[in-house]
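Re: duplicated header lines in exported structure tokens

Our pipeline writes sequence and tokens for each protein into one text file. With two proteins the header for the second block appears twice in some exports. Here is an export where it did not happen, for reference. First protein block:
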Amino acid sequence: MEVCLFEPEIAQNTGTIARLCACFGLRLNIIEPMSFIFDSREFKRAGMDYVNKTNIKLHSTFQDFRNSFTGRIILLDTKAEMPYFNLQYKPSDCIMVGKESSGVPYDIYELCDDKVVIPMVHGSRSLNVAVSVAIGVSEALRQLRYPAWVR
């Protein structure tokens, strides 16, 4: 199981997601460009000392990521129709989210293997991207029966 961020814009969100990945032993893929300096104070503050424990791989383009990843890319997106809990996750999947401000471009959307949405009450536009990743990862790990011995 992996996580991918498409051109992240907010250092604190990326740091929080890096921390989440460290805690669950997931690789974090980041597709550049980022709208902040990778070594920024905000990124380090949100990720704390977990950033140094996170397996982070940077990719210069989506195609670079696609070429290096052999599993399914599951896009969490507000435009998707299938609820995230209706997808059957596999250990080889990668949960991807787009830019905080605009998601992913249409061509990238179309290249993802599956698209899922986190259903919300009418009038709600979106959740924070770090919260969305946590919800998606939580469901995937639940389905995959994440090791009970991990505490």
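Second protein block, exported in the same file:
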Amino acid sequence: MISDQLPIIQIVILLVASPLCVIFRNGNWAWAIATLSTWTVLGIVSFLTFNIIQEGPISYHLGGWRPPFGIEYSLDSLNIYIILLIVFIASIILPYSKGIIKKEIEHNRRHLFYSIFLLALLGLIGIAATGDLFNVYVFLEISSLATYVLIGLGRKRQSLKAAYRYLIQGTIGATFILIGIGFLYSMTGTLNMSDLSTRLQPIIDTRPVIAGISIITVGILIKLALFPLHLWLPAAYTHAPTVVSAFLAAVSTKVGAYLLLRFIYSIIGPSLTFDSIPLLEILLSLASLAILVGAIIAIFQNDIRRLLAFSSISQIGYLVVGISIPTVTGLTGGIVHIANHGITKGAMFMTIGCIAYSVGETKLKNLKGLAKRMPFTSAALLIGGLSLIGVPGTAGFIGKWYIVQAALDYGLWPVAIIVLLGSLLAIIYVGKILESIYFSKGEIVFGRVEKLSFYQIIPVWLLIIATIYFGIHTDLTLGISIEASNTLVGGQ
């Protein structure tokens, strides 16, 4: 049946659509191909999500070779949740990109942008879908190489510099992951994640295995941009084309969080990981620093994009706190915050893209009184900011609530205080944005406001509405997150 082939068809569609964008060598045709293929994949992923919720995990064997001898695509409640987020965001961003990239990417490069965007999307989906550890590395390289190019496609010279910095640090992270995979393979003789988990149990305390676990973890943390391994992120988010910034902020680091979850809980096992290596203490310490340092630095930024970039570093800290607490409540908080923060931050970066398109500015001092000239865009920024703070009724509140509850249940009250303090600091940097665009009485620096099209306005508000919806109706996000958390920790 054709439905049995859907796990691989979603990859094949993007793999075929990407070169088609180049063959047509026309920006409008490339946009149409990319949008149609992405929305088709969204339909496939939605169907797979429904099936997994109703019938359980799906295992697809490439070429008919059964694992561990063949390559497996293994879809369960955790990774289909991540894939759905990735494709949903891409499906919203592509219509939005049609007008936005006119000012950011040269006309003769737009077909290349859509081709490479599809490759980045393919790589991110593949990372989450594969059940083979080496193929994680392969798809990681596909998405990373595509992302480097996407960042460098901007008209500004800083875009190339940001892409080069990300290239260097991303390559270091990928090298760590590959070396760590080599250590584990040399000790077990398998790359299938499920088989690897079984074979590691008797030898988990051996030095090569501990070295492999440690090296892979460092590589994943670089990709995740957890403080202090975050140095690539501010420049990438600030100087990339705004379409690329929105996509990266919404899904790129979230895939890094998924990798950390999968590696700790599915391959190594939480008890063995935290007993053999003091990973709990290390991750919680780094995550706590990320929450505070990212928020504090964000307060002193005068460019909205750079401010939100450091805000993302702080929000990554929340994700890692949830991941590091090996209870159903902790993991639920971390997993639900992956999607909720992705939707919120994607909406905010898309809103900033609208502002940059209309007035040519993202510096706060030049946006005084913006709300009077762009009331709907400013309102979108306001709602997104409330979600970043974690105001009840918004998506950002749900994950933080569960993370604080898990920290208190686990006896980590200092961590709970840091999470709450991070939200208080978020009030300051979000308030800084709102003060400038709503309450500042200074002279407005920008002149004529260029009118936005429906291609730009509707996608932004779809994500803003989703930010409110998933803050009130939590059945989907919390339901999948709780199911995934129970599976990962065995109902602890």
